[in-house]
Amino acid sequence: MAAWSSALPQEFASSETDAFAWVQSERLETTLTVTVTAYCPCPICCGKSDGITSSGTLAKKQQTIAVDPDVIPIGSEVYLEGLGTFIAEDTGGAIKGNRIDIFMEDHNQALLFGIQEIKAYLSKGRV
Ligand SMILES: [Zn+2]
């Protein structure tokens, strides 16, 4: 019992190592705490269903996030603690200030994500 529960944090830490490489490098611009929600390419979330972001790219899961470009410039790489590295490719009417919307392929998955406070690491330079 004890061995199993103590193994969990270690696995979590090792899976984060790669993503933290640039976070700990000179590419890190700033960190901020953001309120994160999720969306999918359905008409309920987007008012359309073509999956094209406001920057003209095709939204991809584990890559696309929507941001407020006044806070996070479009094209920025953003590491979200525990979730991985994403690219700011989209915007949204409700995404203002320290808010991030993560693109997911499935509406129910997006709903299940709910609202989470997550530490975000913003990279210098644009993808
Ligand atoms: Zn949706």
Automatic annotation (TrEMBL):
Q: Which InterPro entries match?
A: 3D_dom, 3D_YorM, Resuscitation_pf_RpfB, RlpA-like_sf
Please name the source species.
Syntrophaceticus schinkii
UniProt name for this protein: 3D domain-containing protein
Would you kindly state one Gene Ontology biological process term found in this protein's UniProt entry?
A: peptidoglycan turnover
Q: Which Gene3D superfamilies match?
A: RlpA-like domain
What keywords is this UniProt entry annotated with?
Answer: Signal
The domain of life for this entry's organism is Bacteria
Q: What would be one Pfam family of this protein?
A: 3D
**Which GO cellular component terms, listed alphabetically, does the Swiss-Prot or TrEMBL entry include?**
outer membrane
The UniProt GO MF terms for this protein read: hydrolase activity, hydrolyzing O-glycosyl compounds
Spell out the CDD domains in the cross-references: 3D_containing_proteins (cd14667)
Query: Locate the 3D domain: which residues?
Result: 64-114
Is the keyword Signal assigned to this protein? yes
